[in-house]
Amino acid sequence: MVSRAGNSPRRSTVPSVVVGVADHNGWAILVSVAASNGKPVVVDRRRVPLVDKGVPSQPYHHETLALPGAEAEPLLRKVKRSIAARAALAFEHLSSDLSPRYRVSSIAIRHPPLPQLPATVAEVHRSYYTTCRADGMLYHQALCAEARRRDWKVHLHHRGEELARAAEALHEDAAEVERFVNGLREELKPPWTAEHRHAFAAAIATPGFSWRAKL
Asked: What is the C-alpha separation between 125 and 114, in angstroms, rounded?
């Protein structure tokens, strides 16, 4: 059973962490951010699998296209179970690895690719636009559901606005924030990809931190 580390009685005395999430079909980048002397610091970064080996990672866009509904729906349920279990495991391992020095308070994740996921595979396949985005919904929904189950707040942002929002939160010029974020590559060493940088910036912009120091 997955523990709910966020409910520890010591939570108020432990520094909080926001996890910037860059979610993809089958995997995600997690960048954990805390405040140190009023400045944002990376305390953990990792790439996590979100579906088991041998289980389709994009069932709507591939496998279910050639299946009748009687076979497509059970396959989709299998995929959903795998993704949910992997999301739970990823957050459990992260929470455990950060404890007892830090506690996760929230995640920052991009808005979902669709307003909602249709109820059936057949409904998804009626629209090419929906079919191309439905698989992403499986991962987004699982990550958000698991975060909420652990009493972590979920903060949504639009792709591409991460640096601008971080600059606003830090009361800094956007160009200076971009230099700061990019410059962490020398300190942290690879990998520090665009996805890492955007997840970091999204976490910085999350309500709850009080940034006091200049970059």
From this structure: 14
Angle (CA) 16-181-133 rounded to 5° is 80
Secondary structure in 3-state letters for 40-69: EEEEEEEEEECCCCCCCCCCCCCHHHHCCH
User: Which two structure tokens, joined as six digits, stand for 133?
Assistant: 């985005």
Tokens describing residue 170 = 């830090």
Identity of residue 90: A
Q: In terms of C-beta distances under 8 Å and separation of at least 24 residues, what long-range contacts does 178-187 make, across chains too?
A: 180/215, 184/42
Sign of the dihedral defined by the CA atoms of residues 81, 84, 89, 90, in that order: positive
What pLDDT, in 10s, does the model give residues 68-117? Answer: 989 999 999 999 999 999 999 999 999 999 999 999 999 999 999 999 99
Euclidean distance between CA atoms 146 and 149, whole angstroms: 5
Q: At what angle do helices 174-188 and 162-170 cross, to 10 degrees?
A: 100
Please name which of 34, 29, 40 lies closest in space to residue 15, comparing C-alpha atoms: 34
Cα(20)–Cα(129) distance, integer angstroms: 27
Q: Is 171 helix (H, G, I), strand (E, B) or coil?
A: coil
Predicted model pTM: 0.91
